[in-house]
Structure formats: structure tokens, C-alpha cells
């Protein structure tokens, strides 16, 4: 074996030794793990709409959006989406990862400070890394810590030669919690930093008509002052794609410098047409949004009453904390055997092993109860096995 393959083999052995080996597996069982929060990925009217338009588009977009891959439906979707979230302009890209990665690489540089919540998504952290900016982690949701880092930067760079950028998710996908946006907006006014907010997991679920957590927590004026907002079509839209909402000048800049936008094939042409339809559908789903919150409250209450430890979640993402990777893997395996699709999330994705239970509006209270009784049964089995 060559040196390269020996290294790979060693790495894999080390991953396996730490119970961190990952495999791709086709899903089975009731969905307690996807990000299809509104059930649109298999929604009946979406499916009918898809059948009605599927002959109008080629399979692939055949080139980047700057060459031959741009379609009217992409421009129409962007303008409709920007309007929906009160933004000046939007840019549709292949997915949310590319949106964060490309955006941060485009707006940050080695002479910038980027302040990031310690638990921000990999696409954000990688975008900062590739930009070469000075990365400053603040403790998860700790805006007091952020303030102290901003003060420190002011002391280090009193002439403000370096640009300051702050980036956060609006709903943390592995913990289910959110920052205090009123306080963050106050800090923005005080320190004048560029603000990037990723609404990936909140779009479609929170705020009026599913516009996101910002619309629930702060004023329209504050929202308009946010420099960049990132969204994905891969979660509650049930599709695939990423969207950056910003000023028209911000969009023009990205179109000219954002490498994964310029040097990659455009999203599938049909996606933007489906996204236009999905947007109208999502706006009308108030009763599903309510159902989802009722289910989430019920599950949290039940898990706590049975003594399970969950994160400090305020959402439909309810991570159940377990003692070790082995325990998390055992619970996930047993739940899957019982027909419940729950997945274990382990380091390095998260700091400590957990079951990431994510609910969707298609679930019933009966299925929530079944999940809880199965968890109780697995805990009893596991105690018996270890005694
Ligand atoms: C906060 C956050 N942003 C962006 C992404 C990436 O989005 P996409 O799945 O569309 O690539 C994810 C993916 O899980 C995410 O959790």
C-alpha cells in the first residue's frame, strides 16, 4: 500500500476507535431527523405542480449562471424572495453551504476581524477560514463575550483599519436555541459592524408567514439594517438551493467575486420554478406552523417528565443529550429498529454526543408519544444490559 493509503487507513482506524465512524444509509422509519420541517419535500400540491412544469425545463442548467445557466425563473424567484423578506436583492446559489462559504470568503479578508459564535455551522467557519480573516470565537450565544471581544479589537486597532464582521445563525441546528437579537442589534448600532445572519433553520417555521426568526424578534428597520441574510431551500422549502439577501450593490459584488457562484454550474433550472410555488405555499401554512410548535412543546414536556436531558431549546429542534458516543449510537440504532428514524450526532459536528430530534408538521401526537415510550424502553434495556 502506498504512503497515502496507509495514512487514510490509519485515520479511519482512529475514527472507528473513537466510535465516530460515519456511513451513508438510506432512510427508513418515521422522520424525526430531517430538515423537511413543513413536509414540502413530499407535499401533494408541490408534486402536482412539479408534474405540470417538468417538461418545460432541461435536466441540467448546463453552465454557470454567468454563462448559459441563468433562467427567468431564477430572476423571478430572487425578486419574489427579496420582497418576501423585505430585502433589496437576493442571489440564488447551489445550496446553503455555498451561500455561507462563498459570502464570507467574498466579504472578509486577512485585514478583517470576523466574530463568530463558537457553534456556527461548518460552512460559516470554513468561509471565514478561507478568507484568511482574523477569526474571533465568542462563546455560544454569549453577547457579553462578543462585546468584550469587540472592545478588545477596538483597543488593538483603534484607527479601525480592519473591518469588523459578526456572523450568527438565527436558530442553531444542533442545539435548537437562538441569540438575543434585540441585544445584537444594539451592539450593531454601538460598534457599527457588518452583520451576517443565517436563517437556514428558521425560514418557513418562525415569524409571520414563516419569514424567519428576525421577523419574530426585531423591527423591520432593524432587519433592513442587517447587511447579509442567508437562507436555504434545503430545509423547510423541501428543495435545494441557497439564497443571500442583501443590498443590490451587495448582490452585484457577489456576482462579480464569489468564486463558488462564478465557477460552478447553476442550480437545476426547475428548482427556482418550484421554489416560487413553494414560497406561496409556505406563506399559507400558519396552522402547520402552530401544529409544529404544539408537538415540540409536548415532546419537551414529556422528555423532561421522564428525566431525559435536553438542550436549552426553544424550538422544534430538540437535542437529547447522552453520556457518550457509544450510548448515542446505541439509542439511535434501537430507535431505528423500532421504526423511528432518529440519528446520533457526534463530535466533531457537536461538542458532545446527542440524538438530534427534529420535528416536522406532518407528525402526529401519537407518533410523538411513541417516540417517548420507545426512548423509555431503550433506557430500561440499557440499564439492564449494564447492570
Ligand atoms: C445553519 C446552517 N447553514 C447552512 C447550512 C447549509 O445549507 P444546505 O444544506 O442548503 O447546504 C446548514 C446545513 O445544515 C445549516 O445548518
Question: Mind explaining what this structure looks like?
Answer:
This protein is of the alpha/beta class. The chain has two domains: 19-38 and 286-386, Alpha-Beta Complex (Aspartate Aminotransferase, domain 1), CATH 3.90.1150.10; 45-283, Aspartate Aminotransferase, domain 2 (3-Layer(aba) Sandwich). Helix content is 46%, strand content 14%. It is built from 15 helices and twelve strands. The strands form three sheets. The protein has a seven-stranded mixed β-sheet with strand order 2-8-7-6-5-3-4, sandwiched between helices. A three-stranded antiparallel β-sheet has the order 9-12-11. Strand 5, helix 7 and strand 6 form a beta-alpha-beta unit. The longest helix is centred in the last third of the chain and has 22 residues, at 365-386. It is globular. The mean pLDDT is 96. The site of pyridoxal-5'-phosphate has 14 residues, from helix 4.
Provide a brief overview of the structure.
The chain is of the alpha/beta class and 387 residues long. It is built from 15 helices and twelve strands.
Query: Could you say which overall geometry the principal axes of the C-alpha atoms support?
Result: globular
CATH class of the largest domain: Alpha Beta
CATH homolog superfamily of the largest domain: Type I PLP-dependent aspartate aminotransferase-like (Major domain)
Q: Roughly how many Å apart are the termini?
A: 44 Å
What fraction, in percent, of the residue positions are helical?
Answer: 40-55%
Provide the succession of SSEs: HEHHEHEHEHEHEHHEEHHHHEHEEEH
What is the strand arrangement across the widest sheet? 2-8-7-6-5-3-4
Mean pLDDT: 96
Major sheet description: 7 strands, mixed
CATH topology of the largest domain: Aspartate Aminotransferase, domain 2
Report the total helices.
15
| Small molecules bound in the structure, each named once | pyridoxal-5'-phosphate
The CATH architecture designation of the largest domain is 3-Layer(aba) Sandwich
Amino acid at each position: 500500500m502506498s504512503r497515502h493509503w496507509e495514512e487514510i487507513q490509519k485515520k479511519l482506524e482512529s475514527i472507528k476507535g473513537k466510535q465516530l465512524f460515519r456511513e451513508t444509509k438510506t432512510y427508513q422509519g418515521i422522520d424525526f431527523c430531517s430538515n423537511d420541517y413543513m413536509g414540502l419535500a413530499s407535499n401533494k400540491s408541490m408534486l402536482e405542480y412539479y408534474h405540470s412544469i417538468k417538461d418545460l425545463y432541461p435536466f441540467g442548467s448546463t453552465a454557470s449562471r454567468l454563462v448559459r445557466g441563468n433562467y427567468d425563473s431564477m430572476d423571478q424567484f430572487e425578486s419574489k424572495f427579496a420582497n418576501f423578506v423585505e430585502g433589496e436583492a437576493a442571489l440564488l446559489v447551489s445550496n446553503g453551504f455555498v451561500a455561507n462559504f462563498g459570502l464570507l470568503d467574498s466579504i472578509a479578508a486577512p485585514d478583517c476581524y470576523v466574530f463568530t459564535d463558537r457553534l456556527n455551522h461548518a460552512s460559516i467557519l470554513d468561509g471565514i477560514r478561507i478568507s484568511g480573516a482574523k477569526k474571533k470565537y465568542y462563546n455560544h450565544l454569549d453577547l457579553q463575550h462578543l462585546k468584550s471581544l469587540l472592545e478588545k479589537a477596538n483597543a488593538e486597532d483603534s484607527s479601525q483599519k480592519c473591518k469588523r464582521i459578526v456572523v450568527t445563525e438565527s436558530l442553531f441546528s444542533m442545539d435548537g436555541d437562538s441569540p438575543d437579537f434585540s441585544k445584537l442589534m444594539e451592539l450593531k448600532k454601538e460598534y457599527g459592524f457588518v452583520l451576517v445572519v443565517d436563517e437556514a433553520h428558521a425560514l418557513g417555521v418562525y415569524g409571520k408567514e414563516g419569514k424567519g426568526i428576525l421577523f419574530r424578534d426585531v423591527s423591520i428597520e432593524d432587519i433592513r439594517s442587517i447587511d447579509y441574510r442567508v437562507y436555504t431551500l434545503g430545509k423547510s422549502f423541501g428543495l435545494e438551493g441557497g439564497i443571500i439577501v442583501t443590498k443590490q450593490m451587495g448582490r452585484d459584488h457577489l456576482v462579480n467575486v464569489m468564486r463558488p457562484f462564478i465557477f460552478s454550474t447553476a442550480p437545476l433550472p426547475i428548482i427556482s420554478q418550484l421554489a416560487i410555488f413553494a414560497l406561496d405555499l409556505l406563506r399559507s401554512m400558519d396552522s402547520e406552523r402552530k401544529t409544529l410548535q404544539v408537538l415540540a412543546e409536548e415532546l419537551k414536556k414529556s422528555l423532561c417528565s421522564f428525566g431525559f436531558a435536553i438542550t436549552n431549546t426553544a424550538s422544534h429542534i430538540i437535542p437529547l443529550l447522552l453520556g457518550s458516543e457509544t450510548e448515542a449510537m446505541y439509542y439511535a440504532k434501537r430507535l431505528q429498529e423500532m421504526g423511528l428514524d432518529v440519528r446520533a450526532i457526534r463530535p466533531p459536528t457537536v461538542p458532545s454526543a446527542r440524538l438530534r430530534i427534529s420535528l416536522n408538521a406532518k407528525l402526529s401526537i401519537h407518533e410523538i408519544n411513541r417516540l417517548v415510550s420507545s426512548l423509555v424502553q431503550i433506557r430500561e434495556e440499557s440499564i439492564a444490559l449494564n447492570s
